[in-house]
Amino acid sequence: MRVLGAILSCGAMGVLVIAVLLRPSSEGHGTHTQIGMPDCAWAVSLDMPCPTCGMTTSFAHAAGGDLLASLLTQPLGLVLVIGTAATVWGGAHSAVGGVRLGPLLGAMTTKWSMWALAAGAAGAWVYKIITWDS
Questions:
Q1: What is the percent of the chain with per-residue pLDDT over 70, rounded to a whole number?
Q2: What whole-number distance in Å separates Cα of residue 99 and Cα of residue 89?
Q3: For residues 27 and 133, is the Cβ–Cβ distance under 8 A?
Q4: pLDDT tens-place string over residues 35-58
Q5: pTM score, two decimals?
Q6: What is the spatial distance between Cα 29 and Cα 42, in angstroms, rounded to a whole number?
Q7: Which domain holds residue 80?
Q8: For a surface tag, which of 10, 84, 103, 133 has the fewest beta carbons within 10 Å of its beta carbon?
Q9: What is the DSSP string of 46-80?
Q10: DSSP characters for 99-133?
Q11: Cα(134)–Cα(79) distance, integer angstroms
């Protein structure tokens, strides 16, 4: 359990470190190209945002301390960056203290919480479509 906690913590920390190093795109999407990823084929071909559009930009804003810009860029991105930060701490707590995170994660991943996450993702995508400016 300690090794798994360390792996989770380091992986989540890696994501946040990369986010800190990125400069958020002023367009609200496209920041991912700074890490060598191609332009989003969905956005290019359909001229509309994909369901995860703006996530990297949202992470970059949040990692830089601008939580409002993160929320306005991609609402689900802010939720996920908070979850990523919690994973850093939870994994570290498990690695150092030997605490089992399974029961906590099991309690958090109920049918209703997954439905809420899915609804939040759909709502964030609709928000991104409404605010889309290619």
A1: 99
A2: 12
A3: yes
A4: 999 999 999 999 999 999 999 999
A5: 0.87
A6: 12
A7: 2-130
A8: 133
A9: HSS--TTTTHHHHHHHHHTT-HHHHHHH-HHHHHH
A10: ---HHHHHHH--HHHHHHHHHHHHHHHHHHHHT--
A11: 24
